[in-house]
Design a protein that fits this description.
Layout: E1 3-8, E2 23-24, E3 27-28, H1 29-39, E4 45-50, H2 53-62, E5 65-68, H3 80-91, E6 97-101, H4 110-121, E7 127-134, E8 162-173, H5 174-180, E9 188-192, H6 204-217, E10 227-230, E11 242-243, E12 249-250, H7 256-266, E13 270-275, H8 280-289, E14 293-295, H9 300-311, E15 318-322, H10 328-333, E16 336-339, H11 345-350, E17 353-354, H12 363-374, E18 392-394, E19 397-399, E20 406-412, H13 419-432, E21 436-441, H14 444-447, H15 450-453, E22 456-459, E23 462-465, H16 466-472, H17 477-489, E24 493-498, H18 501-509, E25 515-517, H19 525-534, E26 538-541, H20 547-557, E27 562-567, H21 582-590, E28 594-598, H22 604-611, E29 616-620, H23 638-655, H24 664-673
Parallel strand pairs: 1-4, 1-6, 4-5, 7-9, 10-13, 10-15, 13-14, 15-16, 16-17, 20-21, 20-29, 21-24, 25-26, 26-27, 27-28, 28-29
Antiparallel strand pairs: 2-3, 6-8, 7-8, 11-12, 18-19, 22-23
Helix pairs in contact: 1-2, 7-12, 13-17, 13-23, 22-23
Amino acid sequence: MRVLAVIPARGGSAGVPLKNLALVGGVPLVTRAVRACLRAELVDEVVVSTDHAGISETARQAGATVVDRPEELSGSTASSESAVLHALDALGADPEVVVLVQCTSAFIDPADLSAAVRKVLDGQADSVVSGLPTHEFLWTATGGGVNHDPAVRPRRQDREPQFRENGAFYVMRTSGLRERGHRFFGEVAVQPVPPQHAVEIDDPEDLELVRALAPFLDEPEPIDVDAVITDFDGVHTDDRAYVDSEGREMVLVSRSDGMGVSLLRRSSVKVLVMSTERNPVVAARARKLGVPVLQGLADKRTVLRDWLNIEGLDPARVAYVGNDVNDLGPMAEVGWPVATPDAHPRVRAAARVVLTRPGGSGAVRELCDRVVAARPAAPVAEARTERRLGPVAIGDVPVGDGEPVYVIGEIGINHNGDVDLARRLIDVAADAGCQAVKFQKRTPAICVPEEQKGQIRQTPWGEMTYLEYKERTEFGHDEYRQIAKYCDERGLHWFASPWDVPSVEFLEEMDVLAHKVASASVADHELLRVLAATGKPVILSTGMSTLPEIDRAVEILGTEKLIMMHATSTYPLPPEEANLRTITTLKERYGVPVGYSGHERGLQISLAAVTLGAVCVERHITLDRTMWGSDHAASLEPAGLEHLVRDIRIIEQAMGDGVKRVFPGEQAPKARLRRVTV
């Protein structure tokens, strides 16, 4: 052994009680010191000298050898050199170089440490001290210049820097230390350290300062967990609420969080949102992310403990991210307590990790990225071999194989030209857990055939021509602006099926996230070319279409942002015409995500489509199937839609990953019932 690092770490401390176990960036100071030494290229072994059992255990867990420090060397007057010499004797070690490292410096760069060791090993110095380069002028209390003549004030660029000892580390030739008994002897050199690494912790204010610096100075490490639980306000949001003139609250979230959560789910990491807040925006955001939510909680710690038991999770392999004092309880239950950088000081102090991005500005995404970075690649024997299609991003929601099924409530023309009825249907979709609602947009003068325009119809608004009726039920800019605003408030995407080119231009003015091609429009190549030119995701329904017709449509639309929907355009759909295996046919033929657009009565066919791989499900929705209008009879009422979404989520959980394994719930029956014979 050429180089031994010794870290003196007493249990006592005058300025900060039990300072060496204080958390900075979620890591005890003694652990930070040990890690810096272990990462230094030229350090062969790391020893912690301590008189405290808690420090001893923490040091061992960090990878250090521990030397029990005797009482006579543990008082406030004992020198650090005495601890180093005692450690050398206790180990019976005689390294060429010994390094004294102080826990009070939270940010020790292993490269700086190795550079200092190299100076001694190469014979450039006998003793090296870490120091901060400075051009400061020092004064005595009586006004005398210490390192300058007050009458002669040379410019900064005309002066060589001096170095302020920062106490981080001292490197010594071991023979010189034994001979002299102190750390400075022979040829003394300075190892410069940057200002951000030079803070020494002597009092609580220093500790708060380094805790604030830690998120910016620490290298992010992977977070190896099996589940991530998040608070909502201050984590998914910036902890502010925006209130409109009608008293409705809105919050700011980061779109990047959606992809981060999606990456977690793909890596088989469980995700849960927990909140004391009762505002429906919490559930709306959780629905959009496709994760379960527990809200309106009075005691988050107890609920978390119960959830971990139900899910069979090891708390040590769970992360909880919070920002305020009501998160301290659940943070204490898990192995990875995480805080946002603007969290309450007590929360930052309790955190093992302090993120760099604030809530509402990518905090969840940052955590997700670090968790995914720690996940091992799937073993070759268990790797899935089938092709995974997609995802195609609709807003911040990925739609494709392996993602939560994207459920679309088609309002279509079931609003009957009434914005209030449209709002009620939007509420139905949001309350059921849909991710989107879809309308239909026409220019009646173009879409209504000439021979039908003058036909007389009986309507709820009296007798009128068919053209007048279609115009009466069509929404314009004002209505769709209200719809867009209300969908945003309820946390839903919205888009429409344009039936003509002017309708595409209309929807583009409304800045929809995607476009839907109705089955009737598959062969409208002019319309398809205009849709392709928008660059938006396109959802293509394939009812009443042949494969050659679909081939031509796909040729125009391309496949990069295409989602295809298997559909049979019979209203209502009889089971014998559902032909659900076409979902597989379309996936194999076109290599794009495929969903299902259903017009049947009941839920069974839609649920079967999910088991066959449908990545999204679209169903017409209504308040009452007996309402006036052509599509109400083949639509789902509120209770049916709620049951559909509920059962889709259950099916998603039940599908699993296809890897045969023995689950935790099988262990006890296996031990009790399994009979093994030879």
